[in-house]
Amino acid sequence: MAKTAIIIGASRGLGLGLAKALSSRGWQVTATSRGEAPDLAAAIAASGGSITPATVDIDSDDSIAALDGALGSARFDLVFVNAGVMGPAHGSVAQVTPAEMGALLHTNAVAPIRVANRLRGRIADGGTLAFMSSILGSVGGNTGGGYDLYRASKAALNTLTRGFVATVLKDKPISVLTLHPGWVRTAMGGPTASLSVEESVAGLVEVIEANTAPGHLYLDYSGASIPW
Ligand SMILES: NC(=O)c1ccc[n+]([C@@H]2O[C@H](COP(=O)([O-])OP(=O)(O)OC[C@H]3O[C@@H](n4cnc5c(N)ncnc54)[C@H](OP(=O)(O)O)[C@@H]3O)[C@@H](O)[C@H]2O)c1
User: Fold this and answer.
1) Where in this chain does the entry annotate a coiled-coil region (predicted)?
2) 91-146 pLDDT, tens per residue?
3) What is the CA(171)–ligand 1 centre distance, in A?
4) Atom of ligand 1 nearest to the CA of 14
5) Atom of ligand 1 nearest to the CA of 187
6) What are phi and psi of 227, to 5 degrees?
7) Which of 219, 194, 189 is nearest to 207 (CA)?
8) Which domains, and CATH codes, for the chain?
9) How buried is 89 (Cβ within 10 angstroms: 0-12 exposed, 13-18 middle, 19+ buried)?
């Protein structure tokens, strides 16, 4: 039977690339967007039924509940929470407003855990819960600074994930993966980034398929460990 995945935030960029890569490897994929998603619609049309759409805005608890309701009895071998934002372009601690910082922390750190908490009962034993973090979320690896607000949001995601794994997920036999996709040419990564979406997601899918043992790992797209 085909393996099943849900990718949260698959309208474009890495999430869309993941949906396509998994589908081309024989997975049955549910791909979410929160609004108009023409690139995802084209991928669904070309997928021969192996990618199906769903809707969620992770910032809204009502929207998360509606997604859960719409999924019926679906269970997944992989729940991948990919959605994320960069935050204010200035990236400056001195300039950021409480509202901007609150929104960034909510979308990148709090909302992913709320989605995971809502969907955790749908993850098959032996399956995987993945979060799209970043190497910039590594506290131990932060020797150069830069992108400080975004770094803080991904460090917060990593911290909240560790707490979620240690408490809510502690008896659940699944693999939890905190992943760094590399620096990738998307709207967020920009045109000068070092990797194409296809290169990054090919690595991420291999990492997911190779790391199914229960536990929690922080890995990049090549499978290398990242310090917390
Ligand atoms: N590109 C890189 O170099 C890089 C490096 C490290 C980590 N990452 C991480 O990888 C993930 C994907 O980034 P990307 O480069 O593919 O960026 P992207 O092209 O900007 O895509 C971001 C995705 O997140 C979705 N999203 C944002 N806020 C959402 C919300 N509230 N609810 C639902 N979906 C939401 C977007 O949906 P809409 O189309 O509706 O906006 C879009 O599908 C992010 O978590 C990012 O932090 C990227």
Assistant:
1) none
2) 899 999 999 999 999 999 999 999 999 999 999 999 999 999 999 999 999 999 99
3) 30
4) 16
5) 19
6) -70, 140
7) 219
8) 4-220 (3.40.50.720)
9) exposed
Q: How does the average pLDDT of the chain come out, rounded?
A: 97
Give the span between the Cα atoms of 181 and 195, in whole angstroms: 9
Residue with tokens 């009962």: 121
Which of 188, 194, 222 for mutating ligand 1's site (highest number of atoms within 8 Å of CB)?
188
* Cβ count within 10 A of residue 71: 17
Which atom of ligand 1 lies nearest, measured to the CA of 12? 43
At 217, give phi and psi (nearest 5°): -120, 150
Per-residue 3-state assignment (H helix, E strand, C coil) for 21-41? HHHHCCCEEEEEECCCCHHHH
Helix axes 13-24, 197-210, angle to 10 degrees: 60
DSSP track, 72-113: TT--EEEEEE-------TT--TTT--HHHHHHHHIIIIIHHH
Burial of 66 (0-12, 13-18, 19+ CB in 10 A): middle
Q: Give the distance (Å) from ligand 1 centre to CA of residue 19.
A: 13
> Is 111 in contact with 125 (CB distance < 8 Å)?
no
